[in-house]
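Quick one: structure for this chain?
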Amino acid sequence: GRYGRHLGRLWHAAEDVSVIEHGDAGAHLWARALAGRPILAVILAGTRDPLVGERWAELVLDPRADLADALHERLVKAGGLALARELIVRESWSARRALRVLPDSRYRTALDRFAADLARAGFRRSDVSSAES
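Got it. Here's what it folds into:
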């Protein structure tokens, strides 16, 4: 259970960081605002900069591309992605540590590798070509 809880947080944070850095950040934020579900990076950035929370509330009430772009800009300036990466590291470590109670097996090794690889996905550089990935 602990492994799953930590892996779930890790998955969400890594996915959001990856989409924001390598995909269409505005569209991702807009889609999450339509669902009324902020991403972890927004929540974490809001602890540093109250304007992130205000931008999020504006976007939820009036989902527009320009508001999503303004939120993205504020999110980056507030260090939301760096905070999300810190969370990725913590959750990966916690998930992998939770596996230690299990007997050594190929399944445990696969779960450990999965948590480690998922964490690395949150740190993929945008200047790396797809051939190097």
